[in-house]
């Protein structure tokens, strides 16, 4: 199968692994790329020298295309961009910022640029900035989330109706059935995050991976809405945020409550009570830790079976 996304990235399956802080290092990215999807290194939790190491290791581990996710609110963004240019990273997914800021610099170096958006307005802004594709990420997604709370089912047809560039659907997608649904809505690729956290290749702490596997429906909620809305697995930290927000906490109070490096404590060091545990709603459908390559293959097989079922029904 070939479409605009497989051609754009030169990959076998239009399945993209999301760049997630404290989860997506070179091991995960290269495993996904080797399996025929697109692996992405999540630079948001990496100091510049750490990113450089991961890019170099990834090049050793795969001869397939891979990318780097760059959250634009990162403190040392210009240093990360420099490394991306020096190391000739072929694909960059930017997120959490203005697509105008870095797209032309990256494009001038021959890099394929994709921006992550949570609304049609931002998709149009990204297209105008010259990106090659957008990831439209619905409210089901883990981590940083759109303020308008638009769900994937509503977001994807809205965005695909308005932009000409290809759209990659994200948020709530961990299976081939969900991929088929996203394609029915007009997406040409899917970006999958949470499912890849529960793999041996993810750099996340085993406690966190196990918590993802154990998560049930309703176990994630969006908090810190006055700061940056973020979908979290419920724990003692989330409950403290929830209580503070119910009591009308202002931005400063929430900042103090969050403190520093809570995401690292939760997802990388395995503190399941006081850490920040960023994961999507779809964690309730994830029941085991399994290799990333198997995840890619399973999603692809289930996508094909699902589409065939629809075809048989129509025939
Ligand atoms: P904090 O300010 O609480 O802490 C910074 C954390 O980032 C520390 O753990 C630190 O590691 C690490 N870090 C990596 N590089 C740097 C750097 N250059 N300067 C300072 N710290 C750095 O931030 P968060 O943990 O909440 O978020 C970190 C980053 O992840 C941000 O850039 C943010 O944009 C991004 N992010 C992206 C999300 C997404 O969904 N795409 C979700 C959440 C965050 P150490 O402790 O070893 O010093």
TrEMBL record:
GO molecular function ontology, one term from the record: nitronate monooxygenase activity
Database matches in SUPFAM superfamilies: Inosine monophosphate dehydrogenase (IMPDH)
Cell membrane in keyword set: no
Segments forming a coiled coil: none
Keywords: Flavoprotein, FMN, Monooxygenase, Oxidoreductase
CDD domains (UniProt xref): NPD_like
Record flagged with keyword Flavoprotein: yes
Protein's UniProt name: Nitronate monooxygenase
Native source organism of the sequence: Chitinophaga silvatica
């Amino acid at each position: 199968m070939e479409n605009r996304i497989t051609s754009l990235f030169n990959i076998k399956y239009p399945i993209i692994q999301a760049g997630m802080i404290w989860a997506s290092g070179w091991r995960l990215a290269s495993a996904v790329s080797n399996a025929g999807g697109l692996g992405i290194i999540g630079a948001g939790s990496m100091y510049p020298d750490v990113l450089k190491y991961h890019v170099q290791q990834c090049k050793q581990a795969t001869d397939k295309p891979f990318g780097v996710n760059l959250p634009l609110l990162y403190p040392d963004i210009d240093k990360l961009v420099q490394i991306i240019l020096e190391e000739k990273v072929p694909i960059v997914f930017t997120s959490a910022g203005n697509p105008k800021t870095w797209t032309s610099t990256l494009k001038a170096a021959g890099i394929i640029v994709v921006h992550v958006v949570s609304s049609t307005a931002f998709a149009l802004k990204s297209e105008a900035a010259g990106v090659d594709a957008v990831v439209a990420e619905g409210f089901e997604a883990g981590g940083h989330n759109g303020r308008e709370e638009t769900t994937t089912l509503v977001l994807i047809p809205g965005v695909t109706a308005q932009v000409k560039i290809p759209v990659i659907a994200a948020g709530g997608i961990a299976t081939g059935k969900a991929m088929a649904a996203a394609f029915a809505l007009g997406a040409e690729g899917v970006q999958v995050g949470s499912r890849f956290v529960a793999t041996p290749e993810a750099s996340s702490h085993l406690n966190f991976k196990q918590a993802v596997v154990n998560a049930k429906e309703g176990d994630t909620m969006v908090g810190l809405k006055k700061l940056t809305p973020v979908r979290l697995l419920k724990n003692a930290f989330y409950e403290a945020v929830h209580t503070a927000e119910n009591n009308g906490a202002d931005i400063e109070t929430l900042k103090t409550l969050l403190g520093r490096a809570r995401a690292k404590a939760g997802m990388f060091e395995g503190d399941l009570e006081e850490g920040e545990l960023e994961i999507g709603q779809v964690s309730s459908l994830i029941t085991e830790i399994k290799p990333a390559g198997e995840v890619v293959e399973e999603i692809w097989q289930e996508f094909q079976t699902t589409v065939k079922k629809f075809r048989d029904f129509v025939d």
